[in-house]
Amino acid sequence: MDKGELPAIMQLLGFVIDDEQGLNSQAEKVSHYATIDFDEFASFTEQFRAEEKAKFKVTFDKFDEDGGGELSTDELSKLMSALGFTPLRSMIQEALTAVDEDGGGTISFDEFMKLLAIYRYSEGFTRKEVRAYYRTFLSFAEEDEDNPNVKMVPINLVDDLLLKYFGPQSAPMALKLAEEAKAGRPPKPGEEDRAKEKPPDLSFPECLNLGRRLREFEFAEWRSVFQKADADGGGVLDMQEVQAVIKELGYSLTIEEVKEVVAEVEEAADEDGEQDGQLDFDEFVTLMMIFKVRDGFSRPDLRELFTTFSRFDHDGGGEIETIELGDMLRFLGHSLSLEEVQKFLGQVDFNESGSLDWREFLRFMRLNREEDLGKWRKVYDKHLESPKAAGLTKVQLTIALTELGCELPGKDDLKMKGNVADFDTFVIAIQKGRVVAVAEQRRCAGFPRDQVDRFTKMFGTYDQDGSGTIEPKEVGALLDSLGFSMKTPQERDAIQRDIETSRTNAQYAGVKEVGKGGAITFEVLVQLLRILFNQKDQALLDREKKAMEETTFSIGESQEFRQIFTATCESEQNFAAEAAANAGKPLSLKPGEVLKEISKDGVRRLLTSLGLKVGPNQQTELAEYLGKLTPGGADVDFADFLRLMKWMMSRNFCGIQGG
Question: What average pLDDT score do residues 36-56 get?
């Protein structure tokens, strides 16, 4: 192999490379050629190990301040950091237990070298972490073709493995490492055929090494942010500094939430139980590891989210489909359309499965919370008397909360600071005030207020006796006016089953009176409509899924096309609004309704906006294809838009691919 590959290979083996020039000089002693064979590599490794041991001894003695030949746990941690490792206290303690022969809690140099061997062998992971990583590995592994007793992860699944274990927060680095693994070593001159070869699949040690590299990258990022926040160089951060640092790393927490997690970290880290409200870097790493697992949520929040996740994971498969995700978000108080759910799904579904597992769902909820906090900050700033004001007065707070659809919490639930509410207090007020709003949202099955008002008027039209219930015939007429048929016996039976489910859902949302027999209350009606609208959305998703299978577009490619389609729908809606205004006619869409299809003329306008020249022949060809795609002159929905894009790309229509 080339000598130029030695630094990367030695790092892969767990050695600390802090002097590449010295490493190259040592390689020259083994061979004067540009390449070395395996025997020369083995000789080089032994020499490098001996020199490394001598360097480590010098550093070890430097940290052995009393010259007793032993280091304490704290000194050992500092030594590991000085040598280029980022040791977790849990790993150090575990390895120390394995090598501390006399059980004195201190370690000699020889014991340190044994500890280092353990550390390298496990890539810095604890036994528990290695077992968890191995379980993840097995979920992707397949039998090796040449050796059935050996498990290997297919090279194309490496990114999925890393994301499964480390979570979607680590996506950028996980995807980068996976790409490196897939690329393999670049072919040298004369090895052109090798470039066509598929990179080999990866064994467990190779996957574990990728995991160590990913974690070291994250540790380096955390250390950089930590040192930047540690302005006085004292090596510790106070509460406000911790809050600022974790904000920079993507987690917005109130100071009370910060205090809660800091106390948790200190309780786990300090054997003597002392808690000073400050974190050194080791404790900070522990905090960030907790955040990675919980995505910054507190234990109570985590329990509530997991309970909700489990409730809506109807088949127990550990994943939430798009429709289930929409229901779950509405249950948690977030009123989102199918299009909005699909947009957010694309931001966290890194393995492009079309659904969310528990870790991806947590990431989704964190991103959703960060977006909420951004909106709340704008409302808070809007109602401040001035940018320098200490906070909102009670009157300003009440107005701001009302704007967000929340009620002012009771006096005991809200602690003002000097008769004003700073942003942290404002967030707490929103969280407490939303309890009532969320309960009402559940009773309304997540429909926005304007739709609920519309359904209320319709219900009142059929509830002519004011009894609060409507009979089966009236239910059928109401549903028919909304486009849901009850004409056949099968349709009526299906609706009756949905009504019973709706009663259960209404009771779960806190509704006591749900009607009897075929008669239903308004609260049951909205739950029924949610089920029926979900079925309609599911039919739409099934159409889109079928179109994806036909066109062979990946989920990622489909998401890109969805962005184009959505933007075009918005443009067409604006175009229609302007045309209606110029003609003095009302817009056909109802208030709040969003265009979900593109007209034939809209397709042509899209092509023109992309800079494509659609001549007479191309217009005829396009019209013929659209006629076949949507018989009867129907507009183009997203499923047909995918088919249209596939047709255009397959023939490079109007040079759409740039060729």
Answer: 86
